[in-house]
Amino acid sequence: MADSEIQKEFGVVVEALPNTLFRVQVEGQESLVLAYLAGKMRLHRIKVIVGDKVEFLRDSYGGKARITRRV
């Protein structure tokens, strides 16, 4: 995947789902995105709970987003 296709965005976790999936509301929009935790966040056991502001990378093909950082 080229760097031009990656879109870094911020949002707020609205709902926690099983298997480290989250519904994230995109900042400045009303749309919700389905996102999962990145490998480094799982490796270092960084907890993400409802209400946390997170940075995520959205897939250009419209799939799941990957949460890369908790702000």
Could you explain the architecture of this structure?
The structure is a single chain. It contains 1 helix and 5 strands, in the order βββαββ. It has one helix spanning 39-43; strands at 7-17, 21-26, 32-37, 53-58, 65-70. It has a 5-stranded mixed barrel. The protein is globular, with a radius of gyration of 11 Å.
Q: Which structural traits does this protein have?
A:
1 helix; 5 strands; 7% helix; five-stranded mixed barrel; mainly beta; globular
Any chance you could write out the topology, listing elements then pairs?
Blueprint: E1 7-17, E2 21-26, E3 32-37, H1 39-43, E4 53-58, E5 65-70
Parallel strand pairs: 3-5
Antiparallel strand pairs: 1-2, 1-4, 2-3, 4-5
**What general outline do the C-alpha atoms trace?**
globular
| Structure classification | mainly beta
Distance between the termini: 25 Å
Strand content: over 45%
Q: What is the string of SSEs from the N terminus onward?
A: EEEHEE
Give the rounded overall mean pLDDT: 91
State the total count of DSSP E strands.
5
* Low-pLDDT stretches: none
* Largest sheet, spatial ordering of strands: 1-2-3-5-4
